[in-house]
Amino acid sequence: MDAIVVKNLTKKFTFPVKNESAGFLKNLLRPDTKEVIAVDNISFTVGAGERIAFIGPNGAGKSTTIKMLTGILFPTAGQIRMLGLDPTTERKKLAYQIGTVFGQRSQLLPNLPLTDSFEFFGVMYDLSDAEIQTRTRELIELFDLGSFATQPVRKLSLGQRMRAEVATSLIHRPKIILLDEPTIGLDVVAKKSLRDLLIRLNTEEKTTIFLTSHDVGDIESLCERTIVINHGVVMRDMRTSDIAKDFIYEKYIDLFPKSTFIEFKTLPKGMQYREQTPNKITVAIDLSLLSVTEALKKLLGIFEVNDLDVYDTDLETVIRHMYEKDTIHT
Amino acid sequence: MKKIRFTRKILTTLLRDKTHYRGRLFVDTASLVARCGILLLLYYYVFSQNGGEINNTAYVFVAWSMLLYFIFMTFGLRNVARSIMQDVQSGTVEILLSRPMSYLWYKMWWQIGSGLYSFIVSFFLGATTLFLIIGLPHTMLTASFFFTFLLTSIGTIFLTLLVYTAVGLLSFWIEEVSPIYWIVDKAVMILGGSYLPIALFPPIMYKIALYSPFGASQFITHTVYESWHYDWPLLISIQLGWIIMMVVVVYLMFSRARAKVSINGG
Question: B5 to chain A: nearest residue by CA?
Fold first, then answer.
């Protein structure tokens, strides 16, 4: 059974705009309007138990789509079926079957221990006291929250809090979990821990994961399939491994000098300078020509380095590569 | 049953939350003493300069009326307006709308829960202190007082919440509602009898206090006067009328506001 079915979904927003040539009253009472198409006739389906990344640059239409999927926002046109329910007319019924995590907004009770948040949301989702206790124990174990479950939430680190946020959103065993930038602001260790937990959740409880993120690492390590949206239109809907192969062909290396960089020698084939300053060099590695290990060996032979940092290309670059490829094809 | 259980959970959770903030309770009590206490002292002086009565009303009625106003202020029900505004500005409204509950119902009970602890404590402390200092007016000892006081207290809570919820909902259109909040809040304070006791209102102002939602939201301050004994059916009817009207207004506003949940995000 499909968990999410979206057909020809469109959302238009209309905003009043000031007409400089019109008078105050006209602008107040009958202002000119501007129409913005946030989501433009998109269609996709997500199977039960799939792990989907829904990605795109800022303003692409991701949040609007998620809000329509959860019933917060009403579509201008098109159809949505979430677990067979229409979010527009059956929002509350649907809410019992889905979980949401918004990375930048906390849902936990800040002054009380984490276990109080589990109880609070358990009652909100109409679980019995026994069910709440059992589920709380399960989630504390699954998400390794035991060491801080009795501490007030405001005393938790960001990484601990995010694990707690995801765990709380699962109190009612939702069939789908929608995560909006869940790893934002987390360090490398906390990101990995959260990604591992989400994969475990998907494997053990068969929860469908619908994720939006700007972190290419999240998408590569978590999701089997990626839908790319830009300007409200689906650009790509493909296996994440294919996206990685076709479009994520760059990695970056930051080099920090022992004292200062003085000479900027020509780099071998497959490497390009992105930044050249006496205190930092950034090099882009073309993975189709060179592996990271090979690139590192070569760079360490050229520069006297005190420290370095290797990281993925950003989402905007991946999308730029998609556009470049489309332009070449046309 | 589901709603009752969750409402009870909101109230008990917030009571527990508030007991973590004993300092806040001290601030609320100090604020009550500062604002109400100073006004009571001033009016005590004014009344004693006028032979103990103004407008055929003794000081004891005025003092209890004003105390009730300030005790209900510690409930903090008016903060629902700012809370809704913050939800809209921060986007938290989206999280709450994805829950299996009514947003408005949740916000109102959350606000009641947030102020309940301060209200209960200040009610007992304030009432006991005033009772020990000036005693009770005879109007508060009648059989009908307890029943009608309870009735109009419930009306006061819900009408206050509805008036300020309507102000808060305006933030879906104009985001920053502080200026409107300020105007409404001052109207409620003045017509509710916080600065000038309602017994001393000029006739036209008394009529406005009686028939406007701002004054009606504070009918609790009328309960201690002798006129309450005869007027309560009319006043409670007015309050009920405003509650029904404000429920419709708030419902319509929220229906339209839902369509405006689109601003934050891409």
Answer: A123
